[in-house]
Design brief:
Keywords: 4Fe-4S, Iron, Iron-sulfur, Lyase, Magnesium, Metal-binding, Queuosine biosynthesis, S-adenosyl-L-methionine. The protein is an alpha/beta fold. It contains nine helices and seven strands; from the N terminus they run βααβαβαβααβαβαβα. The longest helix has 17 residues. The protein binds iron/sulfur cluster.
């Protein structure tokens, strides 16, 4: 199930790719890139456990096996592997299956990928990520995404003050279709954030998303 953003609640399958070019301090998928990190049970993440080399054909076959109408390609940062994943996306789109990328907005999408009709949920990171600005905000990439009808912009926010930072990016890059998503790894944390953010989001005519997967399963990993 897609848990957040414009397609929240839709039945889907996830393709989660390893590796990320950022290091957000609150990342909820550190097992895709943080080889110095440890799990809740104290076990260190190891590439040998977390990453599995697969051919494009094998990935496509596995995804088709889920028999769903939406595939979400996430990470890590999935656009870092966009040339390798392009044949997968092309095959899925040829079969009429919707494809969404979850991207941090720092890697430019190739025109060949855009031409497949895939959608992009672009989530630029704010200062609370702990990542220096020149790494998390790449102007030419955000300008390219802002020109795409198939792109929406989704910001993780914890408190109303974060919305000022979002507003500055929206103005600077002319971003449209803005979604605000609460930070939190538990239903309680998300509830607190939503109550703090909702009035200001409504006032700005932006969209507000919850995180359904956290409500349903907390921070538990799937398979
Ligand atoms: S960009 Fe996403 S995957 Fe990468 S560190 Fe930040 S939250 Fe994690």
């Amino acid at each position: 199930m897609q848990g957040e953003g414009p397609s929240a609640g839709r039945s889907c399958a996830f393709l989660r790719l390893g590796g990320c070019n950022l290091t957000c301090r609150w990342c909820d998928t550190p097992y895709t890139w943080d080889w110095q990190g440890v799990s809740d049970t104290g076990i260190a993440y190891r590439p040998v456990d977390e990453l599995h080399v697969m051919s494009a054909a094998e990935v496509t076959e596995r995804l088709l096996g889920f028999e769903v109408g939406l595939i979400v390609i996430s990470g890590g940062e999935p656009l870092s592997q966009q040339s390798r994943v392009l044949p997968v996306v092309a095959e899925l789109r040829d079969r009429g299956i919707a494809v969404e990328f979850e991207t941090n907005g720092t890697v430019s999408p190739e025109d060949s990928l855009i031409a497949t009709g895939a959608r992009f949920n672009v989530s630029p990171k704010l200062s609370h990520s702990g990542v220096v600005e020149h790494r998390r905000i790449v102007p030419e990439v955000l300008v390219k995404f802002a020109a795409q009808p198939a792109a929406e912009f989704k910001f993780v926010c914890g408190e109303a003050a974060d919305l000022e930072e979002v507003a500055a990016l929206v103005d600077r890059f002319g971003l449209k279709d803005v979604w605000i998503m609460p930070r939190g790894q538990s239903a309680e944390e998300i509830g607190v954030s939503i109550r703090e953010l909702a009035d200001a989001v409504v006032a700005r005519r932006w969209n507000l998303s919850t995180r359904l997967h956290v409500h349903a399963w907390g921070s538990e990993r799937g398979f």
